[in-house]
Description:
Layout: H1 3-40, H2 48-51, H3 53-56, H4 62-69, H5 71-78, H6 82-96, H7 108-121, H8 125-132, H9 136-158
Amino acid sequence: MNRQQRIARLRERLAIARHRLNIAVAALVAEEEIEARQRRQRRWWVKPWIQRRPLYGQYETLMQELRLEHHGDFKAYLRMEPDMFQELCARVGPRIQMSQDGRPPLSSGIKLAITLRFLATGNSYRSLAFDFRVTHNTISLFVPSVCRAIVEEYEDEVFSTPSTPDE
């Protein structure tokens, strides 16, 4: 076999090896895409126990019962009278209400109730999540903004800034 034949044969082997390599890479990429799709698939968009919030959540059940039947227990629960809660909700509600982008947003009332319960008890976000049937990461997002909204709404009435050094 002369030199040109050996070079031609080597090129043929190289082309076959490249073809096999391309097939192997394509198979690995396809396998990885399938695994990635399987990893991303969720069982639920919202967990079923959270979807039952209107039936069993504390805001929808216990708080409404206490508001209608036992004002003293409502005050013990949130550390404020039901009328004050309604006033606070009316004043702060527009600041904390989110626009609707598909799924219905949490009402300003439930956000305020969870925040007040957090401030009253110091319970963890996870504990409040089970009580109110709202995920803990959602609670962690709105509690600071509700606190800011309360301060902004009442700062002119409650927090006075001294205007002179003597004050």
